[in-house]
Design goal:
There is one protein chain. By secondary structure, the chain is α/β, with parallel strands linked by helices. It has one domain: Aldolase class I (TIM Barrel, Alpha-Beta Barrel), CATH 3.20.20.70. It is built from twelve helices and eight strands. 50% of the residues are buried. Bound molecules: 3-hydroxy-3-methylglutaryl-coenzyme A. 3-hydroxy-3-methylglutaryl-coenzyme A (HMG) binds next to helix 4, helix 5 and strand 5. 3-hydroxy-3-methylglutaryl-coenzyme A binds next to helix 4, helix 5 and strand 5. It is an enzyme of class 4 (lyase). This is hydroxymethylglutaryl-CoA lyase.
């Protein structure tokens, strides 16, 4: 299949990137991060998470973030909502798009959201119904699509089954999470082949972590399959609190640099994005995990 002409980047840095930070990050820093990402041309930003603050304290200021952010024209600011309680809280704070998150691994589902895969799908149904009633789009995540920290290998058929359930429930897009970054390119291709039998390619997204340094190679492989939506995190921030050792998402700067080189449009200003990566890593005292970001900063 030819490469897509354009890719939509979903920036998950403010949520996936920051949710695991041990020290509290003030709301003003999160808001400035979101503003800078918007100014760099990113038009889809996952800004917060309406989960239990006992489970994920870093996301406790979700409402202040959603109500305080500066909206760029044409941009969408979304939030995670694992259940109806999360959705109702999000709606009160003006969320315009939400995401439910399940897993292709039973053990990960239990650790992450405290229920089985089947129970999670039951929890998501009322979220989808209520969101539809108020015209809020729902994205669906599937974690552990290329490996699980507790169960090891995960069969593509299992990922396809959970993804199909989310899509049939009404999720407008299903994002496939290589939560612990163990995937490799052929495996990533086989995964997309399996999942795209039931879901149109343009309703799928790749959400790859870079723990083993494979994320860009895996993205190249799935671009060849026709994937045109990529999740990434500025400066490669992040890691999942329920996947020990998981490092951040693939760095947004690295993805944009690769896509620019392939002649694939993103609408994103790489220099502004790289400046944002330099700024946020200095602001929170983290190393910049974007090779492109580091290289551009050194120029
Ligand atoms: C899902 C729950 C809430 C279930 O948690 P639970 O304990 O099973 O839920 P519960 O219904 O039994 O409620 C227990 C308590 O939590 C409260 N509660 C219940 N729901 C909410 C809510 N929405 N917001 C705030 N509070 C909530 C509820 O009110 C109650 O409070 P209490 O009466 O004990 O004071 C919990 O397990 C949780 O918050 N988990 C956190 C999961 C998480 O955020 N994980 C990281 C994000 S996923 C990820 O990073 C992967 C992804 C998406 O990036 C893709 C990839 O890379 O793979």
């Amino acid at each position: 299949m030819p490469f897509p002409k354009a890719v939509r980047l979903v920036e998950v840095g403010p949520r996936d990137g920051l949710q695991n930070e041990p020290e509290p990050i003030d709301t003003a820093t999160k808001l400035e991060l979101i503003e800078r990402l918007g100014a760099a041309g990113i038009r889809h930003i996952e800004a917060a998470s309406f989960v239990s603050s006992r489970w994920v304290p870093q996301m406790a200021d979700h409402c202040e973030v959603m109500t305080g952010l500066t909206r760029h024209p044409g941009a969408t600011y979304s939030a995670l909502t694992p259940n109806l309680k999360g959705l109702e809280a999000g709606l009160e704070c003006g969320v315009e798009e939400v995401a439910v998150f399940g897993a292709a691994s039973e053990a990960f589902s239990q650790k992450n959201i405290n229920c089985s895969i089947a129970e999670s799908l039951q929890r998501f149904e009322p979220v989808l119904e209520r969101a539809k009633a108020v015209n809020v789009r729902v994205r669906g995540y599937v974690s552990c699509v290329l490996g699980c920290p507790y169960e090891g290998e995960i069969a593509p058929a299992k990922v396809a089954e959970v993804s199909k359930a989310l899509y049939e429930m009404g999720c407008f897009e299903v994002s496939l999470g290589d939560t612990i970054g163990t995937g490799t390119p052929f495996k990533a291709k086989r995964l997309i082949e399996a999942v795209s039998r039931d879901i149109p390619m343009d309703k799928l997204a790749a959400h790859f972590h870079d723990t083993y340094g494979q994320a860009l190679a895996n993205l190249y492989a799935v671009l060849e399959e026709g994937i045109a939506v990529i999740d990434s995190s500025v400066a490669g921030l992040g890691g999942c609190p329920y996947a020990k050792g998981a490092s951040g998402n693939v760095a947004s700067e690295d993805v944009v640099y690769m896509l620019d080189g392939l002649g694939i449009e993103t609408g994103i200003d790489l220099n502004k994005l790289a400046d944002t990566g330099t700024w946020i890593t200095q602001a929170i005292g983290r190393p910049n995990r974007s090779k492109v970001g580091v290289a551009l900063a050194a120029k």
